[in-house]
Specification:
mainly alpha; elongated; 50 residues; 0% strand; single chain
Amino acid sequence: MLDDLKAWLEKNSTRVPRDSLTYKAIQYTLNQWELPLPAMESEAKAGRPQ
């Protein structure tokens, strides 16, 4: 599911205006992607909701 989310973010980052808050949120998420990933994966494996 996380791979699908990242692909969606990458695909849609070019579809919104660069000066929009949506673009900024997408870019922030992509820039921070590697930081939360291990924690989210371990939570998902443990069966705990995010």
